[in-house]
Design brief:
- There is one protein chain.
- Helix 3 crosses helix 4.
- Helices cover about 40% and strands about 15% of the residues.
- By secondary structure, the protein is an alpha/beta fold.
Length: about 425
């Protein structure tokens, strides 16, 4: 231990007082770490079983180009995803470039002119609002294509208004969207149990409504997924949890066969759907990334708990708190001032393996109503399963931290962040 302390001081200039403080906080969450390990063990076995069941072989790692007909690697990967998430079908493609793109494909594939989309967790995050086109006029949005939008606002405490769901469902309601993670809202992310309660409420009012879950940041944080509790569709990004830090691009859509097929026809073209789409040499990374994903999510969760414990003890409001059940890998911390937000993000960037020398600054990011600061020294651009942090520059100055390919990288990145805040006299130890 003394060797580690000396190395941190000599090579990362971390004050010994900071190291001692952080290690004390770590000791206080060891039992929570043990709980996370049990979830990870279960999910690792689940992924392995799916790969063995679908006879994953070396031939799956061959490259396909052009149309991608009969791509055995792509088709095997999709069968593995369907088994991991216990669904009828899966669409897992490098041609899907982000979580927002995956959601767009699923929405446009399953909504038609005159249908209504209902969000039951308040307003979705900013970039999806552009896809919907309800708040502002956006070329090519759902609203422009004749799809209407409605929402059930969250209760004042950030919880779901279950009683209000029935009032908003009507004859035109075709799809209900459930955003699992908090986005840039200071509210609890949804547990699988809460998602199940939402779905049961929706189905009790109108059984044929499609319940779609935006599962970004939530995969493998529990032994169950939303598709285990009634979700008809589930969508996510491969440069978040399920890509395990190896996927260079991609997204997934899993669920009932009809709805996944509809999405495939939107992604490629009617009549072709899932039959086309070359793997372009990335299929090995997508498959291996999925294999590593439970362990990488484990590291991210431990980093989030570690940060929560540190900053709660320093007097900051944190969500979730260290001992709370985790629904995703995101840790929200109210930093109180813009200077503290910037110092936090500087610290995360300083702890990165890539671009550690770069200083993040707030900027006018398209699609947002204020400046946003992002710290993301990543091997894959925009990969938020890697240690990263971002924040809208407006009160209450909440920073959202997530990721960490290994626990020890998450740990030192957070210690460097605390050290930066300490040296700038923003915190006292």
């Amino acid at each position: 231990m003394e060797e580690i302390k000396k190395y941190l001081k000599d090579n990362f200039n971390i004050d010994e007082k900071v190291v001692d403080y952080c290690l004390e906080c770590e000791a206080g969450v060891k039992e929570k770490f043990a709980e996370i390990d049990k979830i990870t063990e279960y999910n690792q076995y689940k992924v392995l079983a799916a790969m063995q069941k679908n006879r994953l072989s070396e031939s799956c790692f061959n490259v396909s180009t052009g149309y991608g007909y009969n791509d055995i690697g792509r088709d095997t990967l999709e069968s593995i995803y369907a088994d991991v998430f216990h669904t009828e079908l899966a669409l897992v493609r490098p041609q899907i470039i982000s979580g927002t793109h995956a959601l767009t494909v699923a929405l446009f594939g399953n909504l038609r002119y005159g249908d209504e989309m209902l969000s039951v967790v308040g307003a979705p995050y900013d970039t999806l609002q552009s896809v919907i086109g309800h708040v502002r006029k956006v070329r090519g949005s759902l609203v422009e294509h004749g799809v209407s939008y409605n929402q059930v606002d969250l209760l004042p405490d950030g919880r779901v208004d279950y009683d209000g769901i029935a009032d908003k469902i009507n004859d035109r309601t075709r799809l209900v969207t459930i955003q699992r993670s908090k986005g840039y809202e200071y509210r609890p992310s949804l547990t699988v149990e809460e998602i199940e309660k939402i779905i049961k409420k929706v189905k009790s009012v109108k059984p044929d409504v499609i319940c779609m879950v935006d599962n970004c940041y939530g995969e493998f944080t529990d032994i169950k997924e939303p598709t285990d509790v009634g979700a008809d569709l589930m969508v996510g990004s491969l440069i978040k949890n399920p890509g395990g830090g190896l996927a260079p691009v991609g997204g997934y859509i899993v669920g009932k066969e009809e709805y996944v097929e509809n999405s495939a026809y939107r992604l490629t073209s009617p009549g072709m759907g899932r039959e086309v789409g070359p793997s372009l040499g990335v299929i090995t990374s997508l498959i291996q990334g999925l294999f590593l994903a439970p362990g990488v999510v484990n590291a991210s969760l431990k980093g989030a708990i570690f940060a929560s414990a540190i900053f709660k003890k320093l007097g900051f409001d944190v969500m979730p708190e260290p001992d709370e059940k985790r629904a995703d890998i995101v840790q929200a911390i109210q930093m109180k001032t813009p200077e503290a937000v910037i110092a936090f993000c500087e610290g995360i960037q300083m702890g990165a393996a890539v671009d550690s020398y770069v200083k993040p600054e707030p900027w006018d990011m398209p699609g947002y109503d204020c400046q946003v600061i992002m710290a993301a020294g990543a091997f894959v651009q925009g990969s938020s399963i890697e240690l990263s942090a971002d924040a809208p520059m407006k009160p209450p100055y909440t920073v959202y931290m997530q990721g960490g390919l290994t626990w020890y990288h998450a740990k030192i990145g957070i210690m460097i962040t605390v050290n930066n805040l300490y040296k700038k006299k923003i915190i006292c130890l």
